Amino acid sequence: MNLEEFSIGFIQEVVEESIRRSEPTEMAFVEKMCSYLSDNGVLPEIESSFYQKQAKGIKVNGYCYHEESKRLSLCVASFDMEKARGTISQSNAERLARRALKFFEESSIGLKKEINEFEKAYALADLIENIYTEVSQLDIYLLTNLNYKSNDLITISTQFPDVRVYVWDIERLYQLVDESQGMKKIEINFEQDLGETFQLMMVPDQSSSNVYDCYVGYISGEILARAYEVWGQRLVERNVRSFLQARGGVNKGIKKTLQNESYMFMAYNNGISTVAEEVSLVPVKEGLNLYKVVTVKGWQIVNGGQTTASLYQAWKDRNKLDDVSVQIKMSVIKQEEKFDEMISAISQCANTQNRISLSDLQANHPIHIDLENLSRTIWVPDPQGRKSQTKWFYERAKGQYLVELNRQSTVSRKKAFKEQNPKSQVITKTQLAKYIMSWEQKPYTVSKGGEATFKEYMDLSTKESISIDANYYKMLVAKSILFNSCDDIVKNRNFGGYKANVVTYSISMLSHLVDREMDFLSIWALQEIDSEKKRKMKIIADFTWRHITNPPIKGTNITQWCKRKECWDSYKDNYSEELKKIIQQRKPIH
């Protein structure tokens, strides 16, 4: 699949999602784009928050506040569904970024007074007004389905000390998610392809296991930079954190060292950890444990993506790397069937410099392999008793649905695949955790985001030794149907912001009221929740909204309040009995 095909398909998916959820296409675009960025560790989960005042030059589409680092991320979008391969100029991109900055600046001086408190943007304006003096960095993410031809960094002059603009256009997204490129294994002949090679020493006593061979040594910074120029993100696609710009503290340190003390790089840097399927070596001298690397097949940098990309950026900026050496470890996996499993394990142990996406590392856990296998074989029952037509698709690895779709060799086969596996029936690992942990009455954990929720789900699964069988899978799908039905109900209640919090707290309260007892297999059979459950969810959602938006200490940030266990405990203590009585009255609610 090339860029143009990806762009057209992406727009079609946005339009389909917009129609399915009865929401503006730009909103569907932002949610879809942010889901890709969140799944790949670029952004945390983004809260949708559309606001626009053209006369004032203000626009924003979403946000996320990193409480620990005091970093605020704002998203602003430019979506044109008529242009599958249109372009956006640097001046227009800068103008759009300024609109997000203007929202930030105006919010700090009371913009919320001009916004209806039931609009999602009110919550964001209120948050900014409260945290403005604490924010250490403002990140503006410009999201567009157009092509940013310039590719130059956008800088904005402002009194705020640290504002950074990141442009995510359709081509950059294509590079990030098109894992079909990753199906082609990298094969490098270092002297032929990169002009020089390096030498490694074999670590003894590893070959006896017949699982892998391990080699250690050093590689020149220039070889790594040239390799990254040729293979780019494909070289680090197995890395749990892809790296494109020097943003974190570690990356700034790498950059500073390369600029001022490049000769100290080896002492300061932890080096890179790599894996390979095959390696061709030539002994440097008979009897000496030292080998010249000739060719490597399936080479992947599983830890050190930051180091590699930083070296490339410095080399591109014409910094000399002739005195830069990087420590390297290369593990050659001998057993092909264990390649993915070992990469996951090596990544988990090696990546300690930055936060790791646990959901990436656990993709090969037996739980997720079993769920994937079940999802490929269990057909969805037809409520009218007709022959089953579709399946729910469990996406064990990121981008798996896209890869499977693109493996279909013809247009008709692609169409048949999409009909059999509708995009609306895809469940990811982090969604799985959200559905289950909401029912397990942990809404304060779910409110902390996908990775925190996933970790608690995996801890719970390990502790309780959960058995993954057909009934477990069907109940999981039923929980997703319940959750998504609640999401639609909350959206139609027009509460404004905090939809994600209202949904997870409402599901948890329903679970609490019924003591976690529900016939999920009947939901699976119907593929929807009945009118009585919908009635209950509407009542509970109203109570949830009232509870979370009235914290005990006036002025408390609602988003942060929802992350505290006290929020859940007080909800149960104060509203459970009243809710039980109202629900039992069976009065209709509109």
From TrEMBL:
Q: Where would I find the Abortive phage infection protein C-terminal domain in this sequence?
A: 237-552
TM annotation in the entry: none
By its UniProt entry, which Pfam families does this protein fall under? AIPR, AIPR_N
Q: Which parts of the sequence belong to the Abortive infection phage resistance protein N-terminal domain?
A: 29-175
Give the signal peptide as a residue range, or say none if absent: none
Which InterPro entries does the entry mention? AIPR_C, AIPR_N
Name of protein = AIPR protein
Protein source organism? Croceifilum oryzae
